Amino acid sequence: MYDVVIIGAGVTGCSIARELSKYQLKICLIEKETDVCCGTSKANSGIVHAGFDSVPGTLHAKLNIQGAALMEQYSEMLDFHFRRNGSLVLCFSDEDRPQLEELLQRGIKNGVKNLSIIEREELKALEPNVSDLAVAALYAPDGGIVCPFGLTIAMAENAAVNGVEFKFSTQVESVKKTGEDFEISTSRGRIVSKTVINAAGLYGDTLHNMVSGEKIEIIPRKGEYCLLDKSNGEVVNATVFQLPGKLGKGVLVTPTVHGNTLIGPTAEDILDKEGVDTTARGLKNLTEKAVLSIPKLPVKTVITSFAGLRAHISREKKDFMIGEVSDCPGFIDAVGIESPGLTSAPAIGLYVADIIKGKLNPAEKTDFIERRKASVDPKSLSFEEHQQLIARNHAYGNIICRCEVISEGEIIDAIRRPLGATTLDGVKRRTRSGMGRCQGGFCAPKIMEIISRETGREETELIKSGEHSLLLSDKLER
Description:
It is a single chain. Helices cover 31% and strands 23% of the residues. By secondary structure, it is of the alpha+beta class. A hairpin with a 6-residue loop joins strand 19 and strand 20 (331-335). The termini are far apart.
């Protein structure tokens, strides 16, 4: 019997797990994939939104502002990459200035600090590569960028160290209220819990509709992206948006915390909740819109493209759906968490934890481990410190991924850490090996050797990410 079962190990579920791990509760987090951060959380813009876009009075607005304020503190406490680089919303016509002014007033109502409209001359001084056609921009210096993998993995590791049990490759088949408790049938057996938290992303409607007569629908909203090579340097310093349209914030151009430039996303509602394919049409539309903001954008240096799905909830009021289900006490939804969900994640964790505290009244732990230390990053060390590290452990002198300069020591640590990587993508998201120009073309075989050696599994058993993504069909005898 668990006190709390959380379904979904994306950034929302992991944030909730981390907050609840502060209390004397028996907690289990169930995830259908082989690792954390395998759904919406792995494929987004990595933006910490300032909060000017959300409608005042909504959970969107409240949790965006709170989450953005917490991000710097969390990055220091949990040791993940975050930077306040500022954000700009470009206005290309004097006729559209009222829309820009509306965003300014909305942001002020939401409590966004230091927000202002700047004119072309100041805009060009801040961002020399911005189009000459931009007449003005909304400037939010407190906007930021974060590594979505780093944030999610950091919270998950900290939750695990503090006692949360993670069950991967576990598909929820049904949820039933049985008396005061819940019976959860999964592909790996039956689980009983006093409460259930639905953080299942795109499948949040399926779980909700199992227990509630008030049905909801979640529509996958696909966004395609392109990632540019680091050799361009930082094409922009701030995150550059365009005035938003009816399907979202439009195409952005942003630096990443790791030194690339990212453009995207498109916005297209689809039927397939696993439909993460990119299309020639979508990528063409994406680059055409991006160069409107940055005419000299080096689009020929794209090293990869990808698509992510946002969990758009189909209802009139655009807002997060977070709270106890009215006709099923003890079942808490945290669904419809599309943008600014990544920004809001720390605040969503606190918000849902307060709901559970109100129901179960748990005592706080006296031995809660608040801080988490990431793997050592040799690139952040001085030459002398790096040499000392290699002297202590020669694996840190053996470079496996040459594009991103990732050593064998870093890969071994990623595998041995709490909730350690067992897949090629798991190593990639923890170390960035395979994220460079060659996209794993050269380093993948060596990484597979290391995973095999560290886990005791044959290379023919290893997968890229999902359970059906085998990397080798067989090995030839030498």
